[in-house]
Design goal:
The protein is an alpha+beta fold. It contains 14 helices and eight strands. The chain folds into three domains: about 5-170, no CATH class; about 195-260, SH3 type barrels (Roll), CATH 2.30.30; about 265-380, Alpha-Beta Plaits.
């Protein structure tokens, strides 16, 4: 039975090429032809199957076909068809036992194994996308499970690829890795810790690029710009760059302000210190003057038999003022209360949320509110405590 190599050899000698030169170059020419055939077959298969799938998705977009195209699962799967076909045709093109046959077959096996690994990874991502689209509340457990499967897939896939390349059993490579595990852990300690910490950060959704994070001590307070295997890069608000290992974030407490930024407002929790020497019961004249000069208190009436203090009136006014303020979030708690008296006066605690999380607007809103209250306190015959150093 004549092989393709014999046919190519006869063709070259028929063209006047010497038999010795023809024997040397016929398999190289065949290899180029086979490569062109692989590329052509892959292009045709992609046009037929992937193109057909794309047109079907445009006409009838469903969740399953949309994510299949998004994650390129069909693309990787179709890449297998030409490779398997060429692998089975290689013995017909080369004489048995030739080095070129061995090299091309091994290259085909490598390609097939790589495409199988990429196809399985795409299917895992498809599972995650389908789960997130159907039930976002259950995203976290499945996401962490899929990430673990991806790690195992690429680890085992890498072992298989290396074993094919070295023409050794995967079990032999795994045994060798087991024997050298201690050395690998010592050399790649930071990389291994960073890899594990990165999985934990991602699986638990602890950190994303763009998050505002703050570490204890005030050395790190800024926005995450980059997350790599060994480092997390954070740009502080003074435009300095802090670089920390991922396992530092896993092993230590840190504040992520993402919840605040994604919420409907940002919290304000501040105190005004009233001078306790100015606290008194409100006389009828003071009550009437407050009703006349403070519109929000025009309809105020104390409970029967109650004589309010001026601090109580100011606290009631502060609650009304915050509730009527257009930039205070009405969907969250608005509270005003007294804390334990101190040597610096009586603390009046304010707790509310602005209607925005934009930093500049937030600071302006709370400053305007406290400017107003600092001036209004005198309308209630109250004073704010201010330390005065009379010595000297």
């Amino acid at each position: 039975m004549h092989t393709l190599g014999d046919w190519m050899n006869s063709l070259l000698t028929g063209w006047g090429v010497s038999e010795r030169v023809a024997d040397k170059f016929d398999e190289s020419v065949i290899a180029l032809l086979m490569l062109a055939l692989v590329v052509g077959l892959d292009y045709i298969c992609q046009a037929i199957f992937v193109g057909g799938m794309r047109r079907y998705t445009r006409r009838s977009p469903h969740l399953w076909n949309t994510v299949l195209m998004k994650r390129k699962a069909v693309h990787h799967l179709i890449h297998l068809l030409p490779a398997i076909l060429i692998y089975n045709m290689l013995p017909l093109a080369f004489i048995d036992g030739k080095l070129l046959l061995l090299i091309t077959q091994r290259a085909c096996v490598l390609y097939i194994a790589l495409e199988i690994m990429l196809t399985l990874n795409s299917l895992l991502l498809v599972m995650q996308d389908v789960h997130v689209a159907r039930d976002a509340e259950k995203d976290r457990p499945l996401k962490s499970f899929i990430q673990v499967l991806q790690v195992l897939l690429f680890f085992l896939g890498s072992i298989v690829l290396i074993s094919i390349l070295l023409h050794k059993s995967p079990a032999t490579l795994l045994a060798g890795l087991g024997a050298s595990a201690a050395v690998l852990m010592l050399v790649f300690r930071d990389s291994i810790l960073g890899f594990v910490a990165g999985i934990q950060l991602s699986a638990n959704d602890m950190l994303r690029i763009g998050d505002w994070v703050q570490l204890p001590g005030g050395t790190v307070n800024g926005v995450v710009e980059e997350i790599t295997l060994n480092t997390v890069k954070i740009r502080n608000f003074d435009h300095t760059i802090a670089t920390i290992p991922p396992y530092t974030l896993v092993n230590n407490a840190f504040i992520n302000w993402r919840g605040m930024k994604e919420g409907t407002g940002r919290r304000v929790m501040k105190q005004l210190y009233l001078d306790m020497t100015t606290l008194k019961f409100a006389s009828p004249e003071l009550l009437e003057r407050i009703r006349q000069t403070v519109p929000l208190m025009a309809d105020y009436q104390p409970q029967a038999g109650e004589v309010p203090t001026n601090a109580q009136l100011f606290r009631f006014y502060t609650e009304r003022y915050l509730s009527a303020h257009p930039r205070v979030n009405k969907k969250t708690e608005i509270m005003v209360w007294q804390n334990e008296p101190t040597t610096y006066g009586l603390p009046l605690q304010l707790y509310f949320f602005t209607d925005t999380t934009v930093w500049k607007e937030y600071e302006r809103i709370q400053s305007d509110i406290f400017d107003h209250l600092l001036v209004m306190v005198t309308r209630f015959d109250l004073k704010l405590y201010q330390y005065a150093n009379d010595a000297g």
